[in-house]
Amino acid sequence: MHDQIVEEIAPFLTQSEISFYYKRARLRVPLPEGFGEIEIGNLDDSNDDIVGLVDTMWHTHGDVLMLEEGGLSRANAIHCFLTRLFNGEFSLVEEYSGDALVDRTIVDDIESLRKYVPEDRHIVKRFGVECFARLILVRHFDTNLFNSSR
User: Fold this and answer.
1) What are phi and psi of 17, to 5 degrees?
2) Cβ(92)–Cβ(126) under 8 Å?
3) Number of domains in the chain
4) Beta carbons of 38 and 53 less than 8 angstroms apart
5) pTM value?
6) Residue ranges making up the domain that contains 29
7) What would the pLDDT profile of 59-83 be if each residue is shown by its tens digit?
8) Edge-to-edge, what's the strand order for the sheet holding 100-107?
9) Which residues make Cβ contacts (< 8 Å) with residue 2, sequence separation at least 6?
10) With 40 labelled, which of 16, 66, 135, 145 sits at a CA distance of 20 to 30 A?
């Protein structure tokens, strides 16, 4: 049995052609560039939903996204967030100490994030508007290469 929010959002993701799979009662969405996965589900037995980046502290909640998206339903707001993420409106960022990866996060303003990164660390943007344009070109090329009518 899947969490209620999972049942509500799965049709939106299918319609938008956003890949996902089920893990236990929750839903997981693989992110671009091998960045990781978003996990969506109910938080305990409450009426609260969580949208989290697996194996990191980064997360948000359905009610927060509802407010940010102008009062949409939780499922619509989460779908809108994921659509915007896949359209490159958010940056997928890795934080390093030397060569060691210490954190991954999702931000809408990478310059604001830079203010909080300790001096002995650096950040690398893995996906966002500029990266999205490259991904579309690669997907277009791959589609034409493997699905040509020649």
Assistant:
1) 60, 35
2) yes
3) 1
4) yes
5) 0.81
6) 1-150
7) 999 999 999 888 889 999 999 999 9
8) 100-107, 91-97, 122-127
9) 10, 22, 25, 26, 27
10) 135
